[in-house]
Write a structure and sequence with these properties.
Largest sheet: 3 strands, antiparallel
Order of helices and strands: EEEHHEHHEH
Structural class: alpha+beta
Distance between the termini: 32 Å
Strand content: 5-15%
Number of helices: 5
Number of strands: 5
Radius of gyration: 15 Å
């Protein structure tokens, strides 16, 4: 974490997840799914206002493009994975293995880059699934993070 959230908003996600957005230099540099008791934060700048508007539009209709200025940092390999994630259309998940083959890498390396994604939802790592089942999410292979990932996948499939 690099300072306070630029915005924290309520979501329709299961278990009351809130969504935090952090901007720096006019670009989104971090997002996170936060516990329901996280205090709300009205958007603090144009970047966070734009991100909140885009995220709310996504929750209303998951087929909209979340095209925002992003500053994700990361290694060159992580950058390649995160760029590939942004090309996966909503409602059409891709397996770790298929994405790895596309990038000339391994499924484990792709999974590690997904786990390191500092901008979930806007860089849609939830769209990458295991060959059998959803795989992991937010470093977990069970529990609330997996229910969140499944909700996002179902939301996009229905949209």
């Amino acid at each position: 974490m690099i300072g306070p959230w630029s915005a924290v908003v309520v979501t329709p996600l299961p278990e009351g997840w809130r969504f935090g957005i952090r901007c720096r230099g006019g670009m989104v540099c971090e997002t996170a799914f936060l516990p329901v008791d996280t205090p709300l934060q009205v958007p603090q700048d144009d970047c966070s206002r734009g991100a909140v508007t885009a995220v709310q539009a996504y929750f209303a209709s998951p087929r909209i493009a979340l095209a925002l200025p992003l500053a994700a940092g990361g290694t060159p390999f992580q950058q390649r994975v995160w760029q590939a994630l942004q090309a996966i259309p909503p409602g059409r998940p891709c397996s770790y293995g298929a994405l790895a083959a596309q990038l000339g890498s391994s499924a484990r390396a792709v999974a590690a880059a997904c786990r390191a994604n500092p901008i979930p939802l806007l860089i849609p790592c939830h769209r990458v699934v295991a060959a059998q089942g959803p795989g992991g999410y937010m470093g977990a292979t069970a529990g609330a993070p997996l229910r969140l990932k499944q909700w996002l996948l179902d939301h996009e499939a229905a949209g």
